[in-house]
């Protein structure tokens, strides 16, 4: 159903401050920093070996990351699985009774289309589906 674990999303207060820690743990610094304005987040990606590590920092008080940190503190925010056809996977999940947080896939960081499954339906884990926009073939869009 899912292709593979693609990345782990970790909510932090400040990416530049957390960079020292992740540099120490992973032996490399972030290879990409990218803002997703619509979500009120700044992201930084690290090479974690088998999976990427995505740090998420809120850029405003309405950001879901700001709310998450207020409520639960810094820490693991979501796990993301790569899928080969996000529209189809979303439809399958709906048919299986999962609630999705997004009606339609939306633009995420790292050139991806993403959507989230409601954590109440997945043992409290926020699961992101992501599909690389470069891997969308034109027939799927029609
Ligand atoms: Zn993510």
Can you characterise this structure?
It is a single chain. This protein is α+β, with helices and mostly antiparallel strands and 142 residues long. 22% of the residues lie in helices and 37% in strands. It has three helices and eight strands; from the N terminus they run βαβββαβαβββ. An eight-stranded mixed beta sheet has the order 2-3-4-1-5-8-7-6. β6 and β7 form a beta hairpin. The longest helix is centred in the N-terminal third of the chain and has 12 residues. Zinc ion (ZN) binds next to β1 and β5. The site of zinc ion (ZN) has 6 residues, from β1 and β5.
Keywords:
alpha+beta; eight-stranded mixed β-sheet; 8 strands; 37% strand; binds zinc ion
Per DSSP E runs of 2 or more residues, the count of β-strands stands at 8
Rg result? 15 Å
Helix amount? 10-25%
| Amino-to-carboxy terminus distance | 22 Å
Largest sheet features:
8 strands, mixed
Mean pLDDT over the full residue set: 94
Counted by DSSP, the helix tally is 3
Bound ligands, each once: zinc ion
Low-pLDDT ranges: none
Residue fraction in strands: 35-45%
Task: Give, in spatial order, the strands making up the sheet with the most strands.
Answer: 2-3-4-1-5-8-7-6
Gross morphology: globular
Content-based structural category: alpha+beta
Order of helices and strands: EHEEEHEHEEE
Can you lay out the helices and strands and say which pair or pack?
Elements: E1 4-11, H1 15-26, E2 32-36, E3 41-48, E4 51-58, H2 64-72, E5 75-82, H3 86-95, E6 106-108, E7 112-117, E8 127-132
Parallel strand pairs: 1-4, 5-8
Antiparallel strand pairs: 1-5, 2-3, 3-4, 6-7, 7-8
Bound molecules: zinc ion.
């Amino acid at each position: 159903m899912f292709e593979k674990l693609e990345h782990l999303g970790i909510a932090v207060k400040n990416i530049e401050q957390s960079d020292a820690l992740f540099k120490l743990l992973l032996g490399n610094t972030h290879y990409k920093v990218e803002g997703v304005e619509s979500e009120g987040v700044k992201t930084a990606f690290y090479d974690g070996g088998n999976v990427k590590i995505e740090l998420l920092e809120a850029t405003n008080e309405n950001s879901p990351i700001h709310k998450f940190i207020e409520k639960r503190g810094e820490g693991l925010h979501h796990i993301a699985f790569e899928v080969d056809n996000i529209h189809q996977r979303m439809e399958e999940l709906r048919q299986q009774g999962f609630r999705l947080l997004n009606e339609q896939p939306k633009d995420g960081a790292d050139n991806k289309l993403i959507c989230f499954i409601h954590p109440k339906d997945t043992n409290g884990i926020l699961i992101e589906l992501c599909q690389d926009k470069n891997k969308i073939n034109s027939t799927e869009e029609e």
